[in-house]
Amino acid sequence: PLCPQYKGQANLHVFEDWCGSSIAQLRKNLHFPLYPHTRTTVKKLAVAPKWKNYGLRIFGFLHPYRDGDFQFSVSSDDNSEFWLSSDESPLNARLLVYVGQLGTEWTAPGEFNKFRSQSSKSVHLKSAWRYMCNGIHEKWSEQTCHCETQWRPFLPGLKYEVIDSAYISLYADESSLKMNSVDHIPQTLASHSRLPDHIQPQDLEGGSSTAHHGADMLKPDPRDNFFNTPMIHPSRLENVLPACLYSPTYVVKDFPIARYQGLQFVYLSFVYPNDFTRLTHMERENKCFYRESPIYLEKFGFYKYMKMDEQRKETFPSQRLAKGSYKRKHEAERQEGAEGASQRSASARHGRRGPGGRSLVSPYQLWPNPPAREGRSSPHNGSLSAQNGSTQRSASRATGPKQPQLSRSEGEHSPSPPADLPSRIKAPTTFSHLPPVTLPRSNSTDNPLQDQVRVTSYIRTSEIIESQQQLDPDPNPAELEQDLNRSNPDTDPEPELEEGDLSDYSYEEVEARPGWAEDSINWQRTFSVNPMDFELLRSDWNDLRCNVSGNLQLAESEVVDVLAQYMEKLNERNGGIYTLLRIINIEKRRDSARGNRYLVELELMERGRSVVRLSEYIYLLLHRSRQGEVSPPASAPTAAASSLSTPPLTPSNKTPSRPGTTPGSTAYAKPLLCQPVMLQWRKDVMVHFVVPVKNQARWVQQFISDMENLHQKTKDDNFSIIIVDFESEDMDVEEALRESSVPRYEYLRREGNFERSAGLQIGVDTIEDSHSIVFLCDLHIHFPLNILESIRKHCVEGRLAFAPIVMRLGCGSSPLEPNGYWEVNGFGLFGIYKSDFDKIGGMNTEEFKDRWGGEDWELLDRVLQNGLEVERLRLRNFFHYYHSKRGMWNSQNKKTP
């Protein structure tokens, strides 16, 4: 029976922090439809919250006021759907009306006839029944914010009316339920969650399934599931390599570090093979990987790495002209242009003539193939760049091309690349080096896409200067400035149309005028280029400027050399029973002064029967001479020495010395492959995830579910979660932990405002085993299945701490569509042994008592000063979900009208 208090309302669930304007995008939300940001009620099916980046789900029962046929309609900005069941069961719901499917469709308030899909066919309803209804709305921008559902009897001429409180009732009373209580939430085709196997999401509209994201980083990698392979027996690795001391020069123990300077003393590791952590799918927005000025790349691209091939003389007869005949031909062309200009309108821009009958240089003439514009003719025939090509190129290499003289106003709109561009990327010596040129702006004001194509056309850029010199080797600056000012959209008014001319916005179809010159395109233009490995130009310094770069790549030749020596030693020790099947992962920490550290992970065949994995640290020790002595000459260096040894420091190859490096030291030619003492990682050590929380029910429940899934997939019992709860009111965290299947947990409740530093410290203090690993964690994380082993491998007591780089997802992105950036500055996700954590003093709870942000950098300073290395690697499938800070921690809502 319907409770009286249920009538007059419908359930409203709000999903905030989600960008997108289509319902399909909303269904990709991690929390949709079970864990909304807000649960409340609404009194009619017409809401306008005046907000952005959210999704709504309104559901309840519909009570018809009469028997008969009804028609429904929906209006919204942006997309929306209205579902109605044939009875009170949500499983029988079907889609009646909707606004858009792509996310670009919208309607004005009360506009019900814009799309065919807005109005439904007739639906027969009975007044004695109640019908389950479900409305979904997605909103991105903060413009008109509305969504309304109306109905009317299916009779011509009747008006639609909003379904108000007299005809709706709640589906469930949620006022006394916690946010993690979700069993009452209806699951239908509209929600696409927990459906029977035979019902697929594409059944909604009869279309195909969603295409997969094309990012390389989403493709399977052997590292992802390598933990499932049985480990090689430890006895097989004893005495394989001689023992040696491990004391890298970059450790900054007792070295004075100013506040937050630890970021500058963190070095990156090299990996092999390529793990495709480089965000290649984001480089259309950010090209910082190539270490060029963004302005430079936008204007010139990669032209300095390209050498345009000389045009064949039989293809371009103009190239057969003698060296001194160009001016005569140019004068003839100008005379022909003057005759053609007299036949055209006096207001045509490309027919202007300056004082004394001299033809002015148009900005379009500075291009070998000027961009086309409707309704305008161009006297340039596209062949100027080909004339005297070899002569001009040789002259430009010898003396450098002549800079164009541009007006001041033009230079402001098209700035030249700065003089201090990074010089680390060198053009091949065979390429002709052209200095930066300030490009003139197009005089087109009605086609911005044309300007973008013109600016980014790096193939044409290499011939701009040649064309300028050929057009006029000594142009008149005053005339050139006058013409460029006319081409500037900011200073050039649109000329009045004369009789017979057409406006740029005219839709009339006209025949092409005789004599129009069309732009020629040289499809046969070819070029030469040398192979360029931009990875070799990167440094192991922690690059805080570029967040799309992946892990540093290790040269294959170096890997082969090291592994050949190691496999020889391994089989020599074990009677030749191992065969190398695959190189899964090699990580190198470079120390050019003393030696390189490697983490070697191999898939081996043992005795031809079983497959085992090997994961060990080894050290390539570079023997050092005493200070001031000269290294003995290497008469016959080995392959390992030739690829791995470090040459003596000379004025040409000196690099900034790191803290602790002894000046004047050199290395022998033959390094020693050895086993570093006190640098073995423990395969079964306990890992504690410590997380402070406050009123984040949907994220806490997701974190617990992820930990359950991690335990189920890996069968690893050696981890626990410690949640420090600052008086959460939206869920019973302890009960959720108790009902979960995580192997171990600890629930700690603390009163007062949220304090991240204090919460982490409280959680660590409860750990009794000082020889276990503490992982300072966040709630909004998606963990890969190999996270436990990654933490264990990169945490060594007294030696290594681990700060994995997480990928921050953008608003509307998900682990299956990972659009975002690497968090190269953040160290909040941090793994360290508890003994080392206690040794450095733990979290700074006094200074960061009433605030958060910066406590991770301050902790990093003290970790480094105590002699620990901090391993910094980008982890595959390690994501930080997008979320705003609205409603989190200690924030208070401000009443709005």
From TrEMBL:
<feature type="compositionally biased region" description="Low complexity">
    <location>
        <begin position="631"/>
        <end position="666"/>
    </location>
</feature>
<keyword id="KW-0333">Golgi apparatus</keyword>
<keyword id="KW-0812">Transmembrane</keyword>
<dbReference type="InterPro" id="IPR029044">
    <property type="entry name" value="Nucleotide-diphossugar_trans"/>
</dbReference>
<comment type="similarity">
    <text>Belongs to the chondroitin N-acetylgalactosaminyltransferase family.</text>
</comment>
<dbReference type="InterPro" id="IPR008428">
    <property type="entry name" value="Chond_GalNAc"/>
</dbReference>
<feature type="compositionally biased region" description="Acidic residues">
    <location>
        <begin position="491"/>
        <end position="506"/>
    </location>
</feature>
<keyword id="KW-0735">Signal-anchor</keyword>
<dbReference type="InterPro" id="IPR037524">
    <property type="entry name" value="PA14/GLEYA"/>
</dbReference>
<keyword id="KW-1133">Transmembrane helix</keyword>
<dbReference type="InterPro" id="IPR051227">
    <property type="entry name" value="CS_glycosyltransferase"/>
</dbReference>
<dbReference type="Pfam" id="PF05679">
    <property type="entry name" value="CHGN"/>
</dbReference>
<feature type="region of interest" description="Disordered">
    <location>
        <begin position="629"/>
        <end position="667"/>
    </location>
</feature>
<feature type="domain" description="PA14">
    <location>
        <begin position="5"/>
        <end position="167"/>
    </location>
</feature>
<feature type="region of interest" description="Disordered">
    <location>
        <begin position="466"/>
        <end position="506"/>
    </location>
</feature>
<keyword id="KW-0472">Membrane</keyword>
<feature type="compositionally biased region" description="Polar residues">
    <location>
        <begin position="440"/>
        <end position="451"/>
    </location>
</feature>
<dbReference type="GO" id="GO:0008376">
    <property type="term" value="F:acetylgalactosaminyltransferase activity"/>
</dbReference>
<feature type="compositionally biased region" description="Polar residues">
    <location>
        <begin position="378"/>
        <end position="408"/>
    </location>
</feature>
<feature type="region of interest" description="Disordered">
    <location>
        <begin position="313"/>
        <end position="451"/>
    </location>
</feature>
<dbReference type="GO" id="GO:0032580">
    <property type="term" value="C:Golgi cisterna membrane"/>
</dbReference>
<protein>
    <recommendedName>
        <fullName>Hexosyltransferase</fullName>
        <ecNumber>2.4.1.-</ecNumber>
    </recommendedName>
</protein>
<keyword id="KW-0808">Transferase</keyword>
